[in-house]
Design brief:
Rhomboid-like fold, 8 strands, mainly alpha, about 55% helix, two-stranded antiparallel sheet
Length: about 290
């Protein structure tokens, strides 16, 4: 795998995109759409902008000039698939819901007891569930839908903002989704990567609204469709997880854009979202302690 590449105008910004004219790496702030590919400011002669998201998706999947793939997106997909296989291998019966890892990693405040009689849940000190739940799934279909969505939106976002910012956005949004799930359905076991994926969608929406990507409202439409599905099937889908992740991703992307020149402030913004998520979760589960 090739070494990370950085924008020639902003050396602190990792990027997977290049000027189609000179081949130099450029970040999302320096891109200008061209009839074929994208161009750097020196070769565009136009204000900064961004090509349509469909072309970004194509480049994200194939790698810019065939030189780079989105390793974080693929790594997250691999981690989710690996955990799913562990779920199946550790189950007493064939299925995701009957495994030890599901019992120990799914998200809920309280209401379940282990075989040894121990009270389970975040309210009883099992705070790791806020994190582990985003890598667990309830079925093959659940896993397939989420991994397809992650492959599409994650590849786009990783190409736009770089690997480590994307990873932090994903994880922090997942924690925000966990906080939202506890807030709205604290006694219902919740699992899935969809909270983090909604966070990525929220981040893309902010980029769309600010004109960093030219999508013709596709991201807003995609979010609306997914929210309609969420509320229509609220009995089997975590409304709080989706909304919490969406809000977390939007807030964090605003902060990342504001502090895009500072890695320290970007990390501080991520930490802020994480802290707020934990505080929200604590405020909810303390009533069950």
């Amino acid at each position: 795998m090739d070494a990370p590449r950085y924008c020639y105008r902003h050396p602190d910004r990792e990027t997977g995109l290049s000027c189609s004219e000179c081949g130099r790496p450029i970040c999302y702030e320096c891109m200008t759409p061209a009839p074929v590919g994208i161009r750097c400011p020196e070769h565009s002669g136009k204000p900064q902008g961004m090509q349509k998201v469909t072309r970004a998706a194509e480049r994200a999947v194939t790698g810019v000039g065939g030189r780079r793939v989105n390793a974080v997106t693929l790594g997250l997909i691999g981690a989710n698939v690996l955990v799913a296989l562990i779920e199946l291998a550790g189950g007493s019966r064939s299925g995701f819901l009957n495994s030890t890892i599901f019992e120990k990693g799914s998200l809920f405040a309280t209401g379940f007891v282990s075989a040894s009689g121990k009270q389970l849940g975040v309210a009883h000190g099992e705070w790791w569930r806020l994190f582990t739940a985003m890598f667990l799934h309830a079925s093959f279909f659940h896993l397939l839908v989420n991994m397809y969505s992650l492959y599409f939106v994650g590849s786009i976002m990783e190409s736009l903002i770089g690997r480590w910012r994307f990873l932090l956005l994903y994880l922090a949004s997942g924690l925000a989704g966990s906080a939202g799930a506890l807030l709205l359905s604290p006694l219902k076991p919740t699992v899935g990567a969809s909270g983090a994926i909604f966070g990525v969608l929220g981040g893309l929406f902010v980029l769309e609204r600010r004109g960093n990507i030219a999508t013709g409202g596709q991201i807003a439409g995609l979010i609306l469709i997914n929210l309609v599905i969420t509320f229509a099937f609220s009995s089997s889908i975590s409304v709080g997880g989706h909304i919490g992740g969406l809000i977390g991703g939007m807030v964090l992307m605003v902060a990342l854009l504001q502090f895009r020149r500072s890695a320290l402030y970007s990390v501080a913004a991520v930490a802020g979202v994480v802290v707020i998520s934990v505080v929200v979760a604590y405020a909810k589960v303390r009533t069950y302690q």
